Amino acid sequence: MNRSGEPDPEFFEKLWRATYRRAKRLVEGVLIPDEAAGALASEIFENLLDRYKLRPSDAEFSAEALDGAHDHARHNVATDRTAQSDPQICHDLEDERYEKNLDLDRLQKKEGGGFSDHEWNGLDPILRPFGFHLLLRKGLGNQDAEDVYLETFAELARERAKDGKAPVEAIVVFEEVIPLFSKMIQFRAIDWRRKQGALKNQPNTQSSFEDLTEREDGAMQFEDESADPDRGLGQLSFDEIYRQCGEVLNECQWHLIFTVYVAQSATMGELCEDPEILEQLGLDPDHSISKKRRILNETLEEALGKLQKCLLS
Asked: d(Cα 276, Cα 62) in Å, to the nearest integer?
């Protein structure tokens, strides 16, 4: 190793295990064999140790290792699936959320400037239960939920102005379509709640997912407090909400609310891998991803419920 300073064996041992776990379960529904995950983790470590002439900070080295494990693992899985024409390679057999993977290569295939492969016919039955579960929890009625769901589904195949690519083209393995779609539909649900009065009379004025995620003023549910002094609760800025409800939530809950809904600086998956967050939620790194997500979602829902009660009291 061409490095300065003495390495910390305990740090590298813990990080290697974390890198191995990230490679083994890069996204819910994908399960890479132990031997392949271990080999990938070792390869990533060797490459990083050779790359740095001076020892980087633990945080920098950890980020490089974990990001590398995620990126290399999913590209390896995608390559194997394409080479063998088998979208079920490395799919977790215990994942019972849907019957089987669709062929992502066919879903991403463009013909005549659009996506028209028959494989798309199988995507709606997979995404609909997830979409409606989220929308009904957000308080949308069946018809409103149907409208928001269909528009979000259509947007999966809609090219963005900035790069000419559709959201579905951003994923590398099929299992990523569920977290992608969940993120998209949650943004649409927020937009619907913010504009539900106007949408009753103007059903075609919804913002696109691109607009919702790329606005310079950040998350749409926390708008500029100077915009309208007579606005409703749904348009309060984050600072106003914090001033009114500062003692309602604990430090961890405020951190999660800000990270997920305001700064949008981390995905749910990334939070599930954050050691500090896991510790505050009473979770261990070895707990299953489904348990981590469940506890994290419950914590966020509890926090949002407390904020709503505080603001309406």
From this structure: 14
What amino acid is encoded at 19 in this protein?
T
| Structure token pair of residue 74 | 């999913």
CA atoms in the 13 A half-sphere facing the CB of 216: 0
Nearest to 7, CA basis, from 52, 63, 69, 72 = 52
Spell out the alpha helix ranges (H) of the chain: 9-24, 34-51, 58-84, 104-107, 123-137, 142-155, 177-194, 196-201, 209-214, 238-245, 251-257, 268-271, 275-280, 289-312
- What's the whole-model pTM score? 0.62
Alpha-carbon torsion angle 200, 309, 136, 145, nearest 10: 20
Quick check: 310 and 248 in contact, CB under 8 A?
yes
Q: Which two tokens stand for residue 35?
A: 């031997």
Could you tell me the CA-to-CA distances from 100 to 33, 34, 284 in Å, in that order? 19, 22, 30
Report the candidate in 38, 48, 66 with the shortest Cα–Cα distance to residue 7.
48
CA distance 105 to 277: 36
Q: What CA–CA distances, in Å, run from 243 to 5, 155, 248, 301, 303?
A: 46, 37, 10, 20, 15
Per-residue pLDDT reduced to its tens digit, 259-308: 787 666 677 888 888 888 888 898 888 888 888 888 998 998 898 888 88
Q: Give every CB contact of residue 9 below 8 A, 6+ residues apart in sequence.
A: none
For 57-106, the pLDDT digits (tens) are 888 888 888 889 999 999 999 999 999 999 999 999 999 899 999 999 99
Longest CA span, the chain = 67
